[in-house]
Amino acid sequence: MLVPWLWLCDFLDLADQTPESVAQQLTVSGIEVAAIRHLDAEISQVVIGQILEVIPHPNADHLYICRVDCGDAVRTIVTGAPNARAGAFYPVALPGARLPGGRRIEPSVLRGVRSEGMICSAQELGFEENVVPKEIADGLWLLETPLPVGRVVQDALWLNDTVLDLDLTYNRSDCLSILGVAYEVAALLGRQVHVPQIKLSEEEGLPLETTLSIELQTSSCSAYAARCVEGVSWKASPLSMQHRLMAAGIRPISAVVDVTNYVMLEFGQPLHAFDRSAIGSRIVVREARAGEQMQTLDGTLRQLPQGAVLITNGEVPVGVGGVMGGANSQIVPQTQQIILESARFEPRSVRETSRALGLFSEASLRFGRGVDPNVLLPALDRAAALLQEVAGGRIVPGRVVVGKATAEPVRVIFRPDRANALLGTDWSTDSMREALERLGFAVKDHLASQWEVTVPTRRADVAIEADLIEEVARIVGYAVIPTSLPASATFGRLDPDADFKRLIRETLITCGLSEVITYSLQSPEQLSLFEEPTGQVHVRTPMTAERRTLRTTLVVGLLSALRYNVNRNRPRVALFEVGQRFRREGGAFVEETAAAGVLWGAAEPLSWYGSRRQFDFFDAKGIVEALAARAGLLVDLQQHPHPGTHPGQAAEILLDGIPAGWVAALHPQVAQQLELPQGVMLFELPLSVWAEKAHLRPVFHPLSRFPVAVRDLDLVVDIRQPAAALQTALQQVGTDFGETKVTLFDVYMGPQVGEGRKALAFRIQVEPTQRSMTDQELQERVDQLLTVLHERFGATLRH
After folding, report:
1. Per the CB 3.0–4.6 Å rule, which of 40, 115, 166, 676 could disulfide with 1?
2. Are 577 and 558 in contact (CB under 8 A)?
3. CA distances from 169 to 174, 232, 446, 652 (A)
4. Contacts of 216 (CB under 8 A, 6+ apart)
């Protein structure tokens, strides 16, 4: 919410305050002021000038020579803007002037003609292009109203203003209006708010209710009020109104439209103006039917979501309730009569419609968060009065109101003793009562220790006693709440699940991976590449069309992060994530914690002796084994295809025979589909299984006093035979002597072992615990195992 300071000063006396001091108090009280912008901070020596004469430049087709009266002198200024015309007024930067962005203006020669200054556009004076009126967006700032020549623009165009940029939380919709912010500032400073007086002068004639009927056919619109103003003029609004709209981030359009936006910013109640010729004598508010379409004010033909609230003339839609009007009922220069709308729409309906259409407006922002029901009629009357003042309109007698246009305030019981107990304070009841009354809350003694507090309808976020206690703390001041320690303290610790996740994170970081956090919502098409789509859970109202499904795997998000890094020429990417994944199992919704990682690129740093080794399947496998070792587990990897992965480089991870994840290389076709490079390695682990099996407490094993018996075996087997099965069998060599460790240290495929065969070299290490193991004893056991290996796997010793 952008709040122009001078506009705020219309509502309460701030003569002794500065924007900075008020911003500080707002921020401390919970209404964060994200930025303070002084509109004239970088502007000097810019005045109002009047062009006396415009002649074409003799040496350029697209330049003009202007004689400009700047008050102190008539200057020659060269411009290329097509909207420079004699007799009109513009802001003019004199020689030596300073403009936003650090730009300085000095005399210059343009195609042989000396130019003594610059005629300025609104953008050159610091306004964003999206708030500048379209008529002057591509040219000079043409001022329709005559202004004193030579007057500095800070005074003439209200550029001596300051804008407070409020970063509001969702619940503080009351501060989406100047009046709401004024109430907040008044409470902090102990001031009174001056609400604008509404002075209506209705014409004589038939009351509006005799010529206009309104029907509400949906519960999503609980109140609808209308007034009619005739004889309005199509013209620009006053410069003062335009400035306030531009400073608040809204583009001025015409007097009629500007009035509705002005009142919306002032009261927080969105309004809309319809051309009465499109309305006729009937307004019907109903829900959209299947297949209905409408062209909105932005010129887009939109497919209306079924159930959206529509404003119709009884036959065709003329507006989407709470979001945007229709092009068929917009105000045009030929408009003679307008219908002013002030309504109350159900917030959820507006949010869903706005999201479904991808159409977000200032109106939908306010309706989506909730509007004070008791400003519906005052805002309508205020807009009618302003139209009478600035657009020459005549107000038709009466207004048509359907539904409940007002609401009763909420009453909440407040206990001062309870407030002190929750806040840890010892504040007096007088200070608490004063804080509530400064907020505009009526306080009535209910019982000896209780008050009945009436909450204004503008504060929909205050509904229970705890809300009132928070308000007291804000107004009295968080800074004066004393610091105190609890009477008794207990030492906290992580629960086992959090402790195990920390161990996983620390281990992966030690392995050289970096942690990332990716979106829980992903593309269902990409998720289907790695998991069956039958278990997917879709979000009914996603923020984007792509991210509409709760992730069933963490891999998709990691691959997106990989693509982001690869596109920025990162030579090595090693990422992991620990997070939640979701699926539907039967009729139940299942959420579980998983850990996943992605590797690509250089596994080793570049060195003088040559190119770097790239990550491969064994790097990912080694990381999984490192995790297992840290958790006190032994993992068994069995070749097993997984969707989206390379069939020859994919393994299922087993813990005590139970599936506990997978590790694999990304399938080349999937990599191409996802616009990723080849050679991507992946792994994913369900942490619930790992945590259940983990042995986190270290177990001490004394070092053996006996020498380690070592034997190397080079076995020749079928090329399709997994090495893991042989490795498991060889573990039995020294089980009666002590711990046996078997390591695969070489793989050979070539002519020396024959086609379709491979040689696997294993090192067997037996660490005896009771006595030394002789070479003969080791050889006897190896010979026995070789016989078994030959029978089971066709393995032979390589000679």
Report:
1. 166
2. yes
3. 11, 39, 32, 47
4. 222, 224, 285, 402, 403
The pair of structure tokens assigned to 209 is 């209710």
* Three-state SS annotation for 57-96: CCCCCCCEEEEEECCCCEEEEEECCCCCCCCCEEEEEEEE
**Percentage of the chain modeled with pLDDT above 90:** 74
Nearest alpha carbon to residue 372 among 455, 276, 480, 277: 455
CA 741 to centroid of chain Cα atoms: 53
Beta carbons within 8 Å of 594's beta carbon, 6+ residues apart = 553, 554, 578, 579, 580, 581, 684, 685, 686, 687
Given a contact cutoff of 8 angstroms between Cβ atoms, the answer to whether 37 and 162 are in contact is yes
Alpha-carbon span 473 to 730, nearest angstrom: 72
Which position has the token pair 């009526």?
Answer: 442
What is the SS3 assignment for 165? strand
φ/ψ (deg, to 5) at 443: -115, 130
Taking alpha carbons only, the member of 207, 403, 247, 262 closest to residue 321 is 403
Closest CA to 208 of 231, 232, 230, 227: 227
Nearest to 583 by CA among 537, 544, 622, 619: 537
Looking at residue 156, what is its pLDDT?
Answer: 93
Classify the C-alpha dihedral 7-8-11-17 as positive or negative: negative
The two counts, helices (H) then strands (E), for the chain are 21, 40
Write out residues in the chain with pLDDT < 70, as ranges.
Answer: 486-490, 605-611
For 358, left (φ over 0), alpha (ψ -120 to 50), or beta? Answer: left
Angle CA 627–590–587, to nearest 5: 150
The angle subtended at Cα 600 by Cα 599 and Cα 603, nearest 5°, is 85
Two tokens at 120?
Answer: 């300025």
8-state DSSP, 383: H
* Model pLDDT for residues 462-509, shown as the tens digit of each residue: 999 999 999 999 999 998 998 877 666 667 778 888 999 999 999 999
Q: How many CB atoms lie within 10 A of CB 171?
A: 13
Alpha carbon distance 732, 721 (integer Å): 19
Angle between helices 178-189 and 19-28 (to 10 degrees): 80
Cα–Cα distances (Å) from 348 to 294, 328, 366, 376, 543, in that order, read 21, 26, 12, 19, 15
Distance separating alpha carbons of residues 174 and 194, to the nearest angstrom:
17
| Residue carrying the six token digits 């080349």 | 668
In one letter, which amino acid is 371? V
For the beta sheet containing 521-522, the strands, ordered from the edge strand earlier in sequence to the opposite edge, are 521-522, 549-550, 537-538
Contact 214, 400 (CB under 8 A): yes
Q: Do residues 696 and 500 make contact, with C-beta atoms less than 8 angstroms apart?
A: yes
Q: What φ, ψ does residue 545 adopt, rounded to 5°? A: -65, -30
Secondary element (H or E) of residue 156: helix 153-156
* Tokens encoding 46: 């810019």
Q: For position 486, what pLDDT does the model report?
A: 67
